[in-house]
Amino acid sequence: MTPTDLYTLIQRARYGWDGAQRFFAIWAPIAPMPDLITPFLAIASVISVALLAGVAIAALSTLLVALAALHLLITQVLGLSIEVVI
After folding, report:
1. Where in the sequence is the domain holding 67, given as residue range(s)?
2. In angstroms, what CA-CA distances link 26 with 29, 43, 76?
């Protein structure tokens, strides 16, 4: 292995590591920021995750209400029975 090949291998490994750090940078900002902004960024990310969790719970509750309405429609209006056999 020549020194040029070794340098190329190290350079590719460094670029790959930098790319992996940028890809997996979920909890850390990619660009350097002033110390004053970082706590606000952390709080904003926690609030956004909580907001998205609330949206997911609202969607799940809407799905459950729609399924309950469908069940009542099938059993009470159409007169069909739903049986689960295990």
Report:
1. 33-86
2. 8, 14, 50
